């Protein structure tokens, strides 16, 4: 998509400026060096890890060695253009290098922790079946997280929470409540997790480690996406959920799909072991994300899957995407992701995602599969009617469960400290509309009856 290539101020009045100065840099690098030194004993686990690798596959949450080598080379040679401020200075490269080495030192521990699940629960995990899963699959900043939180209130829904995705070890899920969990409350954990993220990020995203969240983001971070995004707009494209490229093919079609299957089985088994017996109704595995690129592959793997999508007109959504990524927590010595990188990424990948949504929902689902489409405007205006559509189409249920809200919760969504308009980003809204006329018409189509015209059930 064409856009204006004019200079964009890095910071406007009122926008927070990251900390800097020689003392801040020195203190940060010393802390990183200390963490790296403390992690060195973990290298003693490598002989056992390498021995197991002769017989067992690499777990899907562990980045392959080739990914480490590639990013190491990029850290040494990357010259992204247009350059950021402060950008890939020598201190920033050293900080990112320390992060990469620290993650390398954790590989054996992460891998052994995964295989402990195989040792303890291997047969039961293999016998656990994922039947009729619900994938809430919508574009970024479409309102999909809040929708997922509403659905998650249904006790039949079994959704891996953010903490379980980051620490995908069922033995740990069982151990923590019986040990540390008796000393630390959920509220204290939430507070500790929130302190890891900048306030501007929390303004735009309701972070809760014990609730469902965008599934692919932590998985991409486990595969070093947080380091990659600091190396330029081309590396940002590795993260795109809109398409499969040569660079991200192994991740999307291999590790990511395997991780979904593994975490789905672990989540369902965890629910069964918690309840102590078969439930009256089988639980429904729900996974929420933006991973449209692998939707056809998920349909092949789970032909009875239910897909729920919320669509939103792209102008405001793309504006929100750019501002949201500007608030992302990245390496402190990098500052924030530069506006030109974010604009380039958003203008290339978000229209592709819109095209992909329109194309995919224009195709019939496989026999036994379900696709449900709802519109953001309907969701805002009529939550009860929208949830009735979701339950009728995805759950074959005419009545809403009592746990599902019918009125939106009060939410504060104004006065963001970072909230640039499309004009301030040198992106004429007319250019977006001209690029996506069919998609915009699709988003604005009036709902003629409680079931949207694009909801399909075979």
Brief overview:
The protein has 458 residues and is mainly alpha-helical.
What does this entry look like structurally?
The protein has about 450 residues and is mainly alpha-helical. Helix content is about 50%, strand content about 5%.
Task: Count helical runs.
Answer: 21
Question: Given the helix and strand composition, which structural class is it?
Answer: mainly alpha
Largest sheet: number of strands, sense, barrel closure: 6 strands, mixed
Distance between the termini: 36 Å
Number of E strands:
6
Strand order of the largest sheet: 2-3-1-4-5-6
Binned strand content: 5-15%
What general form does the structure show?
globular
Q: What is the helix/strand order?
A: HHHHHEHEHHHHHHHHEHEHHEHHHHE
Share in helix: 40-55%
List the helices and strands and how they pair.
Layout: H1 22-39, H2 46-53, H3 65-77, H4 90-105, H5 107-127, E1 134-137, H6 144-152, E2 157-158, H7 162-166, H8 170-178, H9 186-194, H10 199-204, H11 216-222, H12 225-228, H13 233-236, H14 249-275, E3 284-289, H15 295-301, E4 306-311, H16 314-326, H17 339-361, E5 370-375, H18 376-381, H19 383-394, H20 429-435, H21 437-444, E6 456-457
Parallel strand pairs: 1-3, 1-4, 2-3, 4-5
Antiparallel strand pairs: 5-6
């Amino acid at each position: 998509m064409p856009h204006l290539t004019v200079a964009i101020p890095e910071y406007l009045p009122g926008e927070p400026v990251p900390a800097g100065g020689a003392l801040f840099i020195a203190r940060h690098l010393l802390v990183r060096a200390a963490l790296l030194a403390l992690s060195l004993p973990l290298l003693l686990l490598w002989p056992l890890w390498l021995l197991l690798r002769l017989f067992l596959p690499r777990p899907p949450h562990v980045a392959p060695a080739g990914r480490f080598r590639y990013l190491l080379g990029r850290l040494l040679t990357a010259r992204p253009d247009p350059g950021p401020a402060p950008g890939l200075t020598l201190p920033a490269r050293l900080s990112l290098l320390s992060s990469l080495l620290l993650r390398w030192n954790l590989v054996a521990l992460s891998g052994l922790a995964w295989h402990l699940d195989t040792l303890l629960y291997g047969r039961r995990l293999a016998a656990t079946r994922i039947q009729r899963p619900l994938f809430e699959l919508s574009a970024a900043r479409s309102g999909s997280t809040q929708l997922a939180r509403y659905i998650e209130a249904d006790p039949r829904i079994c959704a891996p929470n953010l903490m379980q995705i980051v620490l995908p070890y069922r033995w740990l899920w069982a151990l923590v409540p019986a040990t540390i969990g008796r000393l630390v409350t959920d509220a204290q954990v939430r507070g500790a997790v929130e302190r890891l993220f900048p306030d501007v990020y929390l303004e735009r995203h309701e972070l809760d480690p014990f609730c469902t969240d965008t599934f692919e983001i932590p998985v991409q971070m486990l595969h070093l996406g947080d380091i990659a995004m600091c190396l330029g707009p081309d590396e940002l494209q590795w993260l795109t959920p809109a398409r499969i490229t040569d660079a991200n093919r192994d991740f999307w079609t291999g590790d990511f799909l395997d991780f979904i299957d593994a975490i789905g089985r672990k989540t369902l088994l965890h629910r069964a072991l918690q309840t102590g017996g078969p439930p009256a109704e089988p639980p429904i595995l729900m996974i929420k994300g933006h991973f449209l690129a692998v939707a056809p592959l998920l349909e092949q793997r789970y032909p009875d899957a239910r897909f729920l999508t919320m669509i939103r007109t792209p102008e405001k959504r793309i504006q929100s995407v750019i501002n949201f990524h500007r608030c992302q927590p990245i390496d402190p010595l990098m500052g924030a992701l530069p506006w030109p990188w974010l604009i380039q990424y958003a203008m290339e990948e978000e229209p592709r995602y819109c095209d992909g949504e329109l194309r995919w929902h224009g195709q019939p689902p496989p026999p036994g599969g379900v696709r449900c489409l709802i519109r953001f405007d309907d969701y805002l205006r009529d939550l009860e009617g929208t949830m009735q559509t979701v339950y009728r189409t995805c759950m074959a249920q005419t009545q809403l469960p009592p746990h599902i809200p019918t009125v939106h919760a009060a939410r504060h969504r104004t006065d963001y400290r970072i909230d640039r308009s499309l004009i301030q980003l040198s992106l004429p809204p007319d250019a977006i509309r001209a690029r996506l006329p069919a998609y915009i018409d699709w988003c604005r189509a009036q709902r003629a009856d409680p079931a949207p015209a694009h909801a399909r059930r075979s």
